[in-house]
Amino acid sequence: MFKPRFKAVLITACVFIGVSQIAMAQQLDGPHSSEQINGPPPTATPLPPVVVTAQAYKPFDISSTWGQGFSLTQGSGGPISWTNGHLFSFNNPSNSSTDPKKDPNGGPCSGNYQGAPIDVSKGTKLETYTLFSLPGEMGLKYELYYHNRGINPWSDDSYYSLDTACAYDPNYNGGPCPGVKFYRADGSTILFNGTAGKGPFTESGGGNLATLAYNSASATYTLQDEDATTKIFSSTGALMSTKDASGIGWTFSRAQANGISTLTITHTNGQSMTIAQGPGATTVVNGKSVFTSPVVVTDPAGNAYTLHQTQANYDSIAFPGSPATTINFEYNATSFYGGLSEVDYNGTPYAYTSYRTDNSPFNGWATSTYLADSSQNISINYATDSAGNVQATVTNPLGHQAVQTYDGTYGTGGSYNGQLSSIMAN
């Protein structure tokens, strides 16, 4: 009699559980009142301003810098050196990053990144294109990052560098550089205070999550980044290696021959990829000299990705394999920055971006992104409030508007940092 009673208990328990699950299913998936789900929306109530804190910034002295939107420093031979140009930000010292998690205005949920996307605080158009990515720890990959606000709008995974010559500071007048600036491939930056080529260095803001040290014996810099990677740079700031906490990573070697510059990136496991640029050519277009160059990226399997570069912009990416896939890029020539305005796939328009083209302080700022069928349209209108702070009216694809004000301070009553401080629905 024991076994039947045991079975009965099990059957009773299963029935009880089954009934409970059915009851829950009825609660979750049963009939609902349309008023509860699709009824009239609640009355919009303006929220109080949100105080955003961030690191202080050094005001930009436009009187000592040629151009608006980037800074140039004088080369050793006297004339302006374009290779020393670095981006600057209107509102804070951290440039726009293609990684929303690094946005100092509050991260991906703050509302500062809109559309496909645009960093509203600076009007920056951002894009990321992954050509390939291998699995495994620190797997080799090649990604292109677009950032329209500067001389070199495109970068890739090899673009990590240190500025050891104070090219980031338009007020630098020579002598030992009092700081070293770290540039990531995604556009974000960290400034370390301390004499270049000597140290010691302390991170400017950020809670000392990243560290920098200089080794005079090897004439190299060692940077411990916030993501727990360790990067080694040469005395001039060129990236030599990057490894994670387990010692797994990449090493970088460079060679040049027959007008072609080749960068070889080798993984700890022996796999390698190459980036070969050149030979370049200069032609005259509308009375101006224009530099063009092919760039061939070869993955560890030997697949070649062919890019074409005109001046600082990429015109196209041709992927290997069949069917053939080519992405073409077009740029707004009337915009101050020549911003990326159209992306085509195999000759068919896919997405558009527009920019301000007037003589206002917002010249060159991205104002909208939308797909070729006019869907997913985000538009942004920039202005300033009575105190001179940036105010952006963002209209989403449903036509709803919100005004974002950039008047942040270091806590209540603290000093000004110009970051996202409030979002008010219209």
Jot down its keywords:
single chain, 426 residues, mainly beta, 19-stranded antiparallel sheet, 30 strands, 8% helix, disordered N terminus
What coarse outline follows from CA principal-axis ratios? globular
Number of strand elements? 30
Instruction: Quickly count the domains.
Output: 1
How many whole angstroms does the radius of gyration measure? 26 Å
- Largest sheet composition: 19 strands, antiparallel
Kindly name the structural category: mainly beta
Low-confidence stretches: 1-37, 54-94
Description:
The chain has 426 residues and is mainly β. The chain has one domain (44-425). The chain is built from 2 helices and 30 strands. It has a 19-stranded antiparallel sheet that branches. The protein has a 5-stranded antiparallel sheet with strand order 3-4-5-6-7, with no helix packed on it.
In brief:
With about 425 residues, the chain is mainly beta.
